[in-house]
Fold this sequence. Notes:
- By secondary structure, the chain is α/β, with parallel strands linked by helices.
- It contains 11 helices and 12 strands.
- The chain has helices at 9-20, 33-36, 39-48, 52-59, 73-81, 98-101, 124-130, 166-186, 188-193, 223-233, 297-304; strands spanning 2-7, 25-31, 86-90, 107-112, 135-142, 152-159, 241-243, 246-248, 252-259, 267-271, 274-278, 283-288.
- The protein has a 6-stranded mixed β-sheet.
- Helix 7 (124-130) runs antiparallel to helix 10.
- It is elongated and about 70 Å long.
Amino acid sequence: MKIVVVGYGEMFRSVIRGILNTDNEIVGVFRHENVLYNSLIRFYKDIFHPSYDYNFVKTQKLHEIKAKSVNSKDFIKQIKQLNTDIIITASWSEKFSLNAINSPKIACINLHPALLPKYRGPNSYLQTILNNESTTGITFHLMTEKFDSGAIIHQQQIPIYYHDTGLSLKQRCCKTAVKEIQVLLNDFDEKLKNAKLQKEDEATYYPNISLKDCILDFKNETAKEIDRRIRALTPWLNCHIPYKCMFLTFKQYRIADGCSDKEPATIIKKYEKSICIVCSDGSVMEFSDLNTKRLFSDMYFKNFINVNEQAV
Length: 312
């Protein structure tokens, strides 16, 4: 089959690697940078500050589709000129129009890093860890005009480990995609014939993260819940400790031994650039290499952050 790959980032490159290990032909790729930048800025960026995606595409000597959007007339025209059988998307921000979905001869397929219909939305890596799931996966599904809702043609489960961050889980999903795209393409006709509609009554959706998600809530979250939040948000957002009218950042943390009968969110110990805070279940967390993001941060930490005050 003749395939066009649309996407960006590690998952985009993983899908390309997998396809290159099959008998199928990649007739074109469409990078997200075409959407982000106008042609002149993209031209100079590719020369003076090329992305991983650009370097990878050039190394593999793949044909690049140049257009402003997957929904543009230019993109759809080139898909048809390339005699494309299927489009595969791997990380993308635009919603495909019906014309774009219908532009390849066989199908337009999306790779979603979760076990659909659960965890629809833009960052399922983060959300599955945040919700304490033990497994996730990747799903190849037919595209419709609604995000993440088309019939499923192939899935593969992936374990979530107790130490996983959003980054490590994403890397494992991408590694799995290299293999599973080959499984899909090597048995494509059969899998397409047996595509299963998603059960809408089982669907869940999670929106993108926001800055408020990175503020730690010691009054209402246990130490294990805070640990999951920090791991889940890595590497997209750094979590912050609220303190009076400011926020403290940290480089390291751990769940300390023992518990405290102090009120949740109380700072019970203070060392050089580290503090211990009580969580909602009485457990204690220690945060190290603190920074107040103020001028003379070390002096402020020494003189104005006090034991028995609240981290709120």
